[in-house]
Amino acid sequence: MLHTGLRAAAIVAAATLVGLSAAPGSARAEACTVKIGAVLPTSVDWGRPIAATAQFAVDIANKAGGVNGCKVQMILRDTQVQAKVGVDAAKSMVDIDKVPVILGAVSSGVSMPILTSVTVPAGVMQMSCCSSSTSFSRLAAEGKTKGLWFRTFATSRVQASIATLIAKEKGYKKMAVFYKNDDWGQDMVKLVVHDLKAVGIEVTAAIPINNDQPSYRAEVTKARKAKADGVYLALYPKEGIAVVREWISLGGTRKMIVANSLKSDDFRKGVGIKYLGDVVGTDTASPRTKSASAFVTAYKARFKKEPNGPGLSNSYDATMIVLLAMQAAGKDAKGPAIAAKVPAVTDPNGTPVQANAAGFKKASALLKAGKTVSYQGATGAVQFDRNGDVSAPGLVWSFTGSGIKELRYIPLKDVEAFIAKLEK
Amino acid sequence: MIGVVSYLVFFLTLAAILAIAVLGLNLHWGNTGLFNGGIAAFFGMGAYATILLGGTPQAGQFGGFDLFYPVALAGGIVASGLLAWIVGVATLKLRHDYLAIATFGVAVAFESFVRNSEWLTGGAKGLRGFERPLEAAIGDPFLFNLCFFAFVLAVLTAVYYGLGRLIRSPYGRLLRAIREDEHAAQSLGKNPARIRLASFITGSMIIGTSGALYATFYAFVSPDDVLPILTFQIWAMLIVGGAGNNRGALLGAFVIWAAWTSSGWVLARLAPVELQLYTGTIQYILIGLVIVGMLLARPQGLLPEKLVISQSGGETPRRPVQST
After folding, report:
1. DSSP states along A107-122
2. Any chain A CB within 8 A of the CB of B161?
3. End-to-end CA distance of chain A
4. In chain A, which among 151-190 make CB contacts under 8 A with chain B?
């Protein structure tokens, strides 16, 4: 026993040493490489596809000639959804690998300390696909992010308003809300409850759903007592399946409106399509251009499945915008210079470019010539406001026997008009 | 080069912060035999209270009293002491695994509380708005990190020497007497219940100090920082380093935190592109292997407890031989 233990420890130690000594060599092998960092929860089931999509975008850019003629290398580190681990990973990339940009993280609780203690002090740009907390907008409004913070996650505000629009059209009078008890869910429920009230729908119960419970019977029973004629779900597939199964088995209404986090095959199969006929979903939409379908086509060709799952298109856009901004900022640009070039990539008056290899090539040439482009991303014609937040058109969808079908597209200006009405 | 130094300073700062918590646990477990399974709660209490007291006011958020930093820090430490007092009075009648389960429950309840009490703790989005002391005055981020590291190191040194004195003192002997045989200690006229509570509160305040420094360093705290994994990490550090030995506790903190982070660093460099997505999972396996390997190779820890003989009489007592 003792010997096995020692041997195992020796192997680990040896592997570590090999790693340490091999590191500089492998970095020098490439003649011209630009590095970007990615701090994502790769050890979590829903986090890995987000990282895979970011790497996919990098591969596309490399195929299209790279950034400023150099091959892009994405250094990927796991956060383990722990702030300590994510911050350490980000710090090592910034200090040792000298990355000018960090992609990530997913959880706001990890992105925030990275922003406050690593990227902003070091002048490194940070772009998150998926952090949803309203704290970031406030921090940016206070000027504490120095314009280095961006996120492609637009869904909370847009989705809450579209859900309200649907609920109103369906004529629901009383609604119960289930929400994931994290920063995203807590923000979402606040918006949804506010919006529903604004159009005169009563919210009879707003019930938090915690992770990893073996049963949600108590929560579901509480919602049943609230006697709602419609339900809103801001949940992720895992809890979503558990909650909806118990909800339906207790005779709850099947009239449900769900957030884009449930736009997944896992959820559809986990609950069963025969119970999901009356379910309508919301999402932020791709623009009605070829670009969006270009992303879907490219994604399907690479991964052999639909890009259904939280954060995938956001991750793709985050990576693409970062790479294009690096191209625009020129060789060896630092974080602030790259961040300053983001508007040149998302200029609504710029030349529209698609979110694929051909689009990347075209955009690279235009940006090199000092022109601006309008990146038509997988989540829409993305545009950031002063706080690094995006807005996007809305989409209504439903489940079918084989996947997901789009019901309706709501253009950005209609979404914005409706939100303005709700905010009044 | 400056980059490597800058990263090392950052790494050592966090390792030193965690080492303070390990020293606190060593007082509990290594010296008094209290199985504290709720480290995350006391760590979190220190962190949250410090940010609430020392942060700047935020719209719609309790706290932001913007107190002078040492006051906020002291407030965080006292808050963990208060929590420990309440928890201690309620649970210290329990022994060993029962105490572990009860304190673990406290930590889970604490996490749930901060996640849901949005008015008080910011809910799941966490607490921000803390200005790191002297950061604006120092200006240069590297210099700030260096100064903060020096500060953390000073606190760690103070805790280390303070605990060292305590353990060598007659009071330390009393703690170990309670750990080894409570009834025997009682028969000598000692009050184990009071001593256990005092040790529990002191250790928890040390863990709270660690939490307060952690929140200061990140200028942020959220429920994700007080998940049970933290309790596990601190325990792994103590057991690998050597329970009952403060030098072991220090060493364990640095070794485990280095293994935890460097495994990710190495994998990000070594793993081929197609495996990169799985390095997070492989990293978990490596961390587990390191801990298991060390436990198999050295169950008593890297630096085992040393027998302290404060009064030598006749024959030198010998430790029972440990079988592997």
Report:
1. SHHHHHHHIIIIIHHH
2. no
3. 71
4. 181-187
Q: What amino acid is encoded at B27 in this protein?
A: L
B4, with CB counted inside 10 A (0-12, 13-18, 19+), is: exposed
Q: In this complex, is the C-beta atom of B119 within 8 Å of any C-beta atom belonging to chain A?
A: no
Query: Against a cut of 0.95, is the pTM above it?
Result: no
* Pairing label, strands A230-234, A202-209: unpaired
Give me the residues of B, 208-247, that contact A with CB < 8 A. 217-220, 222-225, 227, 229
Interface check for B134 against chain A (CB to CB < 8 A): the answer is: no
- Structure tokens that stand for A173 in this block: 């009078």
Q: What is the C-alpha separation between B215 and B238, in angstroms, rounded?
A: 22
| Matching residue, tokens 């992720």 | A236
Using a 10 angstrom Cβ sphere, with 0-12 exposed, 13-18 middle and 19 or more buried, the burial of residue A416 is middle
Cβ atoms < 10 Å from Cβ of A48: 18
Pairwise CA distance, residues A195 & A216, whole Å: 26
- CB proximity A264 to B under 8 Å: no
pLDDT, tens digit only, all 324 positions of chain B: 788 999 999 999 999 999 999 999 999 999 999 999 999 999 999 999 999 999 988 877 888 888 999 999 999 999 999 999 999 999 888 877 899 999 999 999 999 999 988 888 888 888 888 888 888 888 888 999 999 999 999 999 999 999 999 998 999 999 999 999 889 999 989 998 999 999 999 999 999 999 999 999 999 999 989 999 999 999 999 999 999 899 999 999 999 999 889 888 888 888 887 788 888 888 888 888 888 888 899 888 889 888 766 565 555 555 555 544
Is-contact B101 B37, C-beta < 8 A?
yes
User: For chain A, what is the radius of gyration of the CA atoms?
Assistant: 22
| Distance set, CA A3 to CA A13, A245, B18, B296, B324 (Å) | 15, 51, 31, 9, 11
CA distance A420 to A340: 29
Nearest CA to A61 among A104, A103, A109? A103
CA distance B128 to B230: 20
Q: What is the ipTM of this complex?
A: 0.87
Say how far apart CA B158 and CA B16 lie, in whole Å. 12
Contact: A91, B7; criterion CB under 8 Å: yes
Length of chain B: 324
